[in-house]
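PROTEIN–LIGAND DATA SHEET

This sheet pairs a single protein chain with one bound small molecule, zinc ion, given as SMILES. Inputs appear in the order they were entered. The predicted three-dimensional arrangement of chain and ligand is reported afterwards as a token string under its own label.
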Amino acid sequence: MAYVNTRGLSLRRSDYSETSQTVTFFAPDLGRINVLAKGIKRGTGKRPASPIDLLELDELVILQKAPGALSVLVEHRSMDRFNALRGDLARIRAGLYAAELLLAMTHEGQSAPALFDRTVEYLRSVDRHGANRLLTAAYELSVLDAEGYLPQLNRCAECGGPISGGTRVVMASGQVSVACPACARGGSGAAVLLRPPTVKACEGLLRMGMVAAVRMKADAGMIREISTLTRGIIRNLLGRDLRTWRFL
Ligand SMILES: [Zn+2]
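PREDICTION REPORTED AS:
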């Protein structure tokens, strides 16, 4: 057993008893972690109730138990509640999407500091600037890249050469293949053709993050290409759609 100080973003809560809940946090060094929050609903003899909202960034002290046993939340202090996000339906949905995406795409106990930073950056951008499709697509790119699911988009996997005239990506049976126009054959499965400016935009979004997504001028076609790519890869990996997609 060890006490750990960390930051965490709350992704999911469920009732554990009349007074306690389990909370799933996403933390930079611990990755996804489930903790038992005792007395959080009604308080204990010593402490008043201090509920944790979904999508709240907290400072945490966690008593980490042996593998297989539920860790215990000892203390929490709110650092950012993304208040504007809570007052607007489109923003809430964009935020809840981040929670669903992380729960589906990350693994328990796998540290992910870069993805943690990108997630906080995404929520802050949605909070400040509102929800938009490019921002959401940029966040999807970040998640896929951090988890190692995003292929290199400017090099052909068939001939090994750089791609100049449009990248064809085919997603089928859990595999993703990338080809240049000369090598691209029919192939079965979901496919998307990314125009060269779209590949450049993806590279810029990955390098510069959510700041770029807020400033970038992207036409509807480019956003559609990026979303078809990211959601195609997610669907191909999970074998299903995410629930939040139809609300975004
Ligand atoms: Zn090729």
